[in-house]
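Reply to dn_fold:

You asked what the input looked like. This is it:
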Amino acid sequence: MSVLFANDRGWLLDSYSLINAGFERCFSANRGHFRCRFNKQYFDLLKPHIVDKGKNSSPALNTEAPSKIDLKTRKKRKRKRSDLNQGEVDAEAFHAKVRLLVLEGSQPLVEAGHHCGYLTEDLHTMPTKQAPIHECQLAALCDMAKQLLAVERSAASHVQAVKGHADLDSHLDLLSCLTENPNDFAQEVTLMGQMYFLPPRSRFLLSDFTRIQPLVNSEEKYDLIVLDPPWENKSVKRSNRYGFLPSSQLKQLPVPAVSAAGCVVVTWVTNRPRHIRFVREELYPHWGVELLAEWLWVKVTRTGEFVFPLDSPHKKPYEVLLLGRTCANNISTTRPEEYEIPDQRLIISIPSALHSHKPSLSAVLRPYISPNARCLELFARSLQPDWTSWGNEVIKFQHHSYFTTESMETICDDTTSTNLQADTSAQL
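and this is what came back:
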């Protein structure tokens, strides 16, 4: 179960379990059925990225402002408010607005995490050496594809299915057509000479912003759209970790064309107030989306500490989600009460160590969409069961190097052993 606890403040989410739920049964043409597991070490965050020097030795959630800071931080803190630029002033104002929500709302959710064992103060495991991260070339491939002419396809060929055989799948056109695993089990496939694991009933289009048209041509309308745009900022430009997209270009995304009436639209936003204002005041109005709620994803370690001190002047332990619904003049916007999206909620989870590997929102958003909702993720880097995903690195985290596998025989033996032990205990 991925939602471990929920209250009127938000949810405690086990992102790792949610990923694995789609890989309980996998199939390979070479080895038959087996089970996949995403590498646990990517969710094995033992301590904060920046340790709050003023905290006591207890690993409980830090609820106080830091009493000691290092020299570099001290210099930053000594800056007068009059010396801050407008962006920094706005950031301080936004933090002041949400600080109490994060502080008070996190506490009961973290306590529930300790109670159920998801979070623990007693860490007996030693940090493991992180496995080498696969060097993803998908974005470069999409960039090269700009030089190619777009392929015109008939309506019947907008979606192609993987076969699970390297020779057959080598002919798939991933850049001009939606590719799907139509099976009710995960599939091991070889694409572009690399092995990937595709979740059941998942679809994807590998392309960049300039070749997104096949998604529109499929004529599918979605009830839920989640976006994680590559926001432009100075650190991204300096690090050159991934390409960014100017805010003005986001307006050109075909969200209205692929949205069903009353579609829920959710956008991940950095903590920069100008990006939040852009979504609120320009992007959503341009798409015909009514803003309904602002949520925060709060990132904690395995002990329940914030990954950064709450009042850190550099990075905050939370990220913003803006939620809205598309409006249509000829369709009533009145919805059942249970579908109403609440405002000011928190999602608490241990984050992935992989850059831009956001938690899936499917479990927490399920109550606010119809039972058979069609779901789409834009700028995705991984796939989900029953979702369509688009991006220039859309299958990045489906690469086999991020997974471990177990044979079904091993699983059956473990299950049999567990059942025997339970029967023996019951007899005693």
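The radius of gyration is 23 Å.
Hope that clears it up.
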